[in-house]
Amino acid sequence: MDQIASLMEHGLHTSAQILGCFLVSSPAANADVTPHLKAESLVLLGDSLFRDREFRRAIHTYKQALQFCKIISKTNPASSRSSSLASNRSSSPNVLNVSGINDNEVAPVKFKIASCHSALSEYGAALAEMDSIPSKMRNLQMNLLMGKLYRYSRQNRSAVSCFKECLRSCPYVFEAIIALAELGVSAKDIISLNPQTPNRSGRASFEHLDSSRWLQRYVEAQCSIASNDYKGGLELFTDLLQRFPNNLHLLLEIAKVEAIVGKNDEAIMNFEKARLIDPYVVTYMDEYAMLLKIKSDFSKLNKLVHDLLITDSTRPEVFVALSVLWERKDERGALSYTEKGIRIDERHIPGYIMKGNLLLSMKRAEAAVIAFRAAQELRPDIRSYQGLVQSYLALSKIKEALYASREAMKAMPQSAKALKLVGDVHASNSGGREKAKKFYESALRLEPGYLGAALALAELHVIEGRNADAVCLLERYLKDWADDSLHVKLAQVFSATNMLQDALSHFQAALRINVQNEAAKKGLERLEKQMKGVDPDAPEEDEDNNVDDADGDQDETELL
Q1: How far is CA 552 from CA 36, 63, 399, 484, 560, in A?
Q2: Alpha helices per DSSP H over 244-381
Q3: Residue 26: enclosing H or E segment and its boundaries?
Q4: Who wins on pLDDT, 291 or 444?
Q5: Is the pLDDT of residue 91 over 50?
Q6: Which residues contact 455 (CB under 8 A, 6 or more apart)?
Q7: Which of 267, 293, 307, 366 is the most exposed place for a label (fewest CB within 10 A)?
């Protein structure tokens, strides 16, 4: 027994597994004579199989051990009560110590079985196993696993109870903090689970107070992000980063949120800082890959994917990043990579976002709706709402698009992007252009530097023949934005007003910023025809698709 335990402690799992086979088949571990030795041998063998990720074999072996536990309890209860098989070793398959089992405490082995089922994404079987463990026998690891399993099965109230129990045991279970924030528990309630423990003088120690302050700020930041208050969350995370400079976790959290809200340059900078600290970090690197693609920085994207593949080719982030890289060459191949990432982790949100965007570009809007809905059910953010609206508009389902955009606006009342999203729906039909203009203007009042709303408003000006207003609006942004899409829009306006030399200048500026900009390439082709005196094909006009939604109009007026 000690030899196999030693092998496990040194990480020699294959040797431990082979020795376990000898141990289980040894005459000394005869089930009829020494069932407790047989049971412990099987648990040790199961642990070695777990470490080698042979989860089904581990489940089978652990269940055999439980059978011998029943034999022990029936034949020799006094002996089983005095057994130390489970009392002095760890109950977790995720640490190096090995656990045994006796008739009074089968909880550790059931936890191991549940952990195997969870690793195989068999969450129902895992939860059934955990439910059979009495609550008084559950330790911190068990409560954390139960919380996750309840959440996967959408039993949110039970999940909240388990995660709260984790924080009562240890205030630094960050997985529980993040989960509770995402489940809608307030920062105040989460912080209250960690009362300040007074010292002998009756006062909380300085160290504890100092620790609790930054931990409280962290909780507040996660709750802000979970409630779509991205600005507040970023401010809190940035304050924490000043106290803990070069904190990898904080840098990644900040970069992820910046990527979600469209602060692409800032997000890229923070992802690069994170990779300087740890070149082999994988967390959120698919988000970084998407940003590099937007910037058309394919050399960095190629290196990133190469680094991820040699670091850990089993993570979903790696396959989503591969999908981003592959999209230019083969959309079907890119889609297969994304789906593989989702199979690895069915709760990986960037995988669904990437899948939805790919399906949209492949003109499969119905399937894109399903992908964006899956992302939204896991954790709604502005990108899943944007994807849904674009998908419904592609299907000419204007009412559904309007509902999704209003849902985003109500969830994120202080988000300029949500306001712009409602404007996009109204702008899709000629009868809604005046409403669209109001939403775009509201978005710009809320966030004056929001280029997306400025471009959309400029497009409305052009459609309604106000080209001078469009140019005036866009040129204001040229001072602060070196953006290829801004130059393309200006070039298109100048081209429409027959100011061909100005149009040429801006198309060229766009291509200097991003040589891969397809709109700039196509615009140049059209411009060449115009400069040769050839009238290029006029863009197709969208058919009017008016939406009669009087009830919604009142809601929108209140929200504006």
Answers
A1: 69, 57, 10, 36, 12
A2: 248-261, 264-277, 285-294, 298-311, 316-326, 331-344, 349-361, 365-378
A3: none
A4: 291
A5: no
A6: 474, 485, 486, 489
A7: 366
DSSP string, 418-449: HHHHHHHHHHTSGGGHHHHHHHHHHHHHH-TT
Q: What is the pTM of this model?
A: 0.79
Alpha carbon separation from 192 to 167, 212, 281 (Å, rounded): 10, 11, 33
Please report the DSSP string for 219-262 in residue order: HHHHHHHHTT-HHHHHHHHHHHHHHSTT-HHHHHHHHHHHHHHT
| Structure-token pair, residue 552 | 């919604």
Residue 171 has pLDDT above 70, yes or no: yes
Tell me the C-alpha to C-alpha distance, in Å, between residue 147 and each of 136, 143, 443: 16, 6, 39
Q: Is the pLDDT of residue 145 over 70?
A: yes
**Max CA separation in the chain (angstroms):** 101
**Pair 66, 109: CB distance under 8 Å:** yes
| Beta bridge partners of residue 198, listed in sequence order | 204
Closest CA to 293 of 464, 123, 517: 517
Do the Cβ atoms of 50 and 93 come closer than 8 Å?
yes
Q: What is the model's pLDDT at position 540?
A: 47
Which pairs with CB-CB distance under 8 Å and at least 24 residues apart come from 485-494?
A: 485/451, 485/455, 485/510, 485/517, 485/519, 486/451, 486/455, 487/513, 487/520, 488/517, 488/519, 488/520, 488/523, 489/455, 489/458, 489/459, 491/520, 491/523, 491/527, 492/462, 492/523, 493/458, 493/462, 493/467
Residues 6+ apart with CB under 8 A from 459: 427, 470, 489
Please tell me the distance from the alpha carbon of residue 99 to that of residue 285, in angstroms, as a whole number: 36
